[in-house]
# Entry
Amino acid sequence: MTATLATDPPMAPLLEPVTFAGMPLVSRIVMAPMTRNHAPGGVPAPAVANYYRRRAENGIGLIITEGVLVGHLSASHEDTVPRMTAGPAEVSWRRVIDGVHDAGGRIAAQLWHLGSLREPVDGLPAWTPSGVHEPRRPAGHAMTVADIDELLEAYAEAARVAARAGFDAVEIHAAHGYLLDEFLWPYTNRRADAFGGSPARRAGFPAAVVRAVRSQLPADYPVIVRFSQFKERAFDARIADTPAELAEILTAFADAGASALHASQRRFWEPAFAGSPLNLAGWAKRLTGLPSITVGSVGLTRDFLRVGGPETVSGLVERLTGGEFDLVALGRILLANPGWATHAAAGRLEAIADYRKSHEELYY
Ligand SMILES: Cc1cc2nc3c(=O)[nH]c(=O)nc-3n(C[C@H](O)[C@H](O)[C@H](O)COP(=O)(O)O)c2cc1C
# Structure
């Protein structure tokens, strides 16, 4: 056991209560959104409530659900991905939310539209900004302004359902190469109208989604926006080459009513731009003044808790306490280790399993 083990002061700030975007949270640890396909017909199965409750019982301050489809045909045809629609899905979400609240946790719904990454369906082209595909994907339908208006209403309806069901916040998924990110990315957005061109214009539709969602919710209701540089199928892709370009995009989100930003990157310790050690969440916070969430390879192996260095708990907490970002999201390590936070805090390394790809098959 070395001086940087979890039970040492380095871990403590992660487990302190905090108020984030107006939400009181029991810790600064977030469960990152992860698609799990346990919602036949778009309705979360009973196991979903147990799955999230278990994480809330174990020190996770804020749970962000897996991507939940907005109620529009173009969002996805995947039958096992949950939906944010009135009726059975809403009823089931209420049970999920009650379980998390009973355990002292908070839960945000991630609103999702897959854009061109929707699985191909005969005769139904994917909705995209310009019909331009991501590399190796079939060409899609270039959305008209009428389509844009239709989707804004779909997002607004999803926000209404989420708030009515009792979610503490919503997160708008504008990352990883899905529809809203396809608008942000110059490769897929070749539009000549008001929704294409400069970074601010490319942010026009995603920001309109933020505005549409915000318009359905009380002024103090938290609306988080998740964004990334990388795409699921293009790790080197970028929506902004400079902090100034990123500022144009994120300012559009802030002006539209975003309360917080969730900056998705693959490794939290990597600088977002040359010339500064700030990571993407650090830049998001600096450029907008909004609170931010970082994510990316936190705790994947037990070495994270043992070794001092930028990619370990001490490096992470140094950034957190330095104010670079406000919350820390964990994804893959929570699949097999719902109790990661409490085990890590108590120094019970033997109770933690290092992440393996096969953990994605687990569901408990
Ligand atoms: C199985 C799986 C499903 C995921 N599904 C989503 C999703 O629905 N929405 C999303 O924004 N990110 C999704 N992600 C990305 C995670 O939220 C997270 O950003 C990523 O796993 C990196 O964090 P980690 O290194 O802690 O795992 C998914 C990741 C995994 C492993």
